[in-house]
Amino acid sequence: MATKSEPAVATSSHPGAASLVSIRSVAKHFGKNIVLRDISLEIAEGEFLTILGESGSGKTTLLRILAGFEHSTSGEVWMQGERLDTEPPYRRRVNTVFQHYALFPHMTVEQNVGYGLAIAKRPAAEIQSRVAEALAKVKMSACAKSKPSKISGGQQQRIALARALVNRPRLLLLDEPLSALDANLRRQMQVELKALQREVGITFIFVTHDQDEAMVMSDRIALLRSGELEQVASPREIYNRPATSYTAQFIGHTNLLHAEVRQGTATCSALKWPTSLPDGAALFSLRPECIRPATAASATGSPGNAATVRFRAKLRDQAFHGATELLRVESDGGLILTIRTASRDLPNSEAPLEFEISAADAIPVRASNSNSSSSSHSGSQSEGGV
Amino acid sequence: MFSRTYRTAITVPPLVWVAVFLLVPYLLMFCYSFWSVSESGTIAHSWNLDNYHELLTKPVYWQTLLRSMWIAARVMFFSMLLGYPLAYFLSFHAGGRKDLYYQLVIIPLWVSYLVRAYAWKTILGTDGVLNTLLQYVHLTSHPLDFLLYSPFAVVLTLTHIYTPFTFLPIYASLEHIPHNLVEASHDLGATPAQTFWRVIFPLSIPGVLAGATFAFVLSLGDFLAPLLLGGPSGIMISNIVVSLFGAAYNWPLGAAISLCMLALVLGLIFFSERLEKKWSFS
Lengths: 386, 282
Known about the structure:
The complex is a heterodimer of chains A (386) and B (282).
Chain A: E1 19-30, E2 33-44, E3 48-52, H1 59-67, E4 74-79, E5 82-83, E6 94-97, H2 109-119, H3 124-137, H4 153-165, E7 171-175, H5 183-200, E8 203-208, H6 211-217, E9 220-225, E10 228-233, H7 235-240, H8 245-250, E11 255-262, E12 265-268, E13 271-274, E14 280-286, E15 292-293, E16 308-321, E17 324-331, E18 336-342, E19 353-358, E20 363-365
Parallel strand pairs in A: 3-8, 3-9, 6-7, 7-8
Antiparallel strand pairs in A: 1-2, 1-4, 4-5, 9-10, 11-12, 11-14, 12-13, 14-20, 15-19, 16-17, 16-19, 17-18
Helix pairs in contact in A: 2-3, 2-4, 3-4
Chain B: H1 4-32, E1 36-37, E2 43-44, H2 50-57, H3 59-93, H4 98-106, H5 113-124, H6 129-136, H7 151-175, H8 179-187, H9 192-220, H10 224-230, H11 237-245, H12 251-278
Antiparallel strand pairs in B: 1-2
Helix pairs in contact in B: 1-12, 2-12, 3-7, 3-9, 5-7, 5-10, 7-9, 7-10, 8-9, 9-12, 11-12
């Protein structure tokens, strides 16, 4: 609980890129309630960083500290060698796309988009051309004269984006901007938003609770849990090499294996596989897609991969997901595992089936302390992510 | 959906109420305004426009009406001046004490209007609290007599009484402004002052209009404050109507003046509602 987990790796994924924003040991307390503790993070120029977390993880608070709507209790935020967190929001070259868009209802779309430029007292001709350009970029030129109440949620979303981008901020903050859209529009906007970010080259910090969204869009994901950074890494790395059991479960589905290591061999129920970990208890994450039905050809083990482990298990249930399906199987020792396979018909019998895994796919993870999070309970032998 | 009997049962009583206590009296007033008082002192039911003619030609009537409007306009202005900042403070800066302050604004409304008007009388009178204090600190050597029995006293009292009525709609409209609009404005570079004039104030206009209408219309028709504190120079149009229906016994002329005021007030309300609609975006 109080044991401070080793600081999450927070260095930029692009070693060459200059750091734009530097968050240094930021903490936020609301009375006795600690919302953020000791957050340190470097954000690179031009990066698309997603702050991912459950509701109550502190992700929106962190964003609001960057925008200037909240003051951190301790710590500092720097942007390009200057203190950012001491400046009021209206002096920061940071713009925000709000969760519920926050368009000004008494202004037309055009006036909304031009608001920041008008405040900055830009010449009228410049405002007009930049607004037109921004509206064209989000494909909303046709609605320039409409009032926000007359356009759909998806369109309001685009206007909110244009209103922020037209000011050419150094940093754009997006607070769950897609959460109010329906699933199809949402997927479309994810792609568009990512493309737009590449095009304009502005650093995006995107807050979401949706791990799929985070994976699709981000250069890096900062996973926040109960006010602490759990892991900061690229989507591939965070999925393939989760550092903790919480990360492994939150990002995608996984099987958590509570194993006992003795002389280079990990044992969990009927499964045994080689490992380099020292003796003692250890926790492993095994992705459902890493468990394959065994084939006759692989019976002797693939060449160059001696560490293929086979085991027998009974099918408990099966859920069809289109291209893939999820199986729940029970191995000889009573270990329940979730398996993702390509869709196919399985023999509908009680006879045990044979499966295999590669030892390299069992990723050792650090047990996340279950201080306040309700979602991770490591009582059972294995947990399929939901 | 509902049975016919049920619908009849819930719609007829209010309709009857409105008819008997509103429409019929107005209709009577309307008729009276075209009648006259005969020399023998009875109402002569002969239709003519004499009352309206008298209203327009005799300076005492239209001048008093103009003075009443001028008093009402000042009350409207000063109660806005007090009510808006109060509502703004409560809505944006009162924090956890919001409900307490709100109650503090509302509580005076529970005190009888008469009591509050008399209170001002004791404050403003020649031997009143204010004059005594001013003499005690030697700001003046003799009592200031313009304080009581003057339009000033009427405007002051009515402002005190109607400020909560302007505060309430303004507060309601400020409370309806989503806080993220204020944040969005700051985010886009607007200072708090710029945010107020470009976002908060425009969005509170419906409340401002409703509050201004309340203060103006209620003050215009007021007769107690001028009666108690106005003196001869503070007479308002309602005092004339009261005396025409009473001691002067000229109901037809009183009815004509009342109908003119009614037309004026309805026109104002109609106009202000049109404007409110234009400025509401919810």
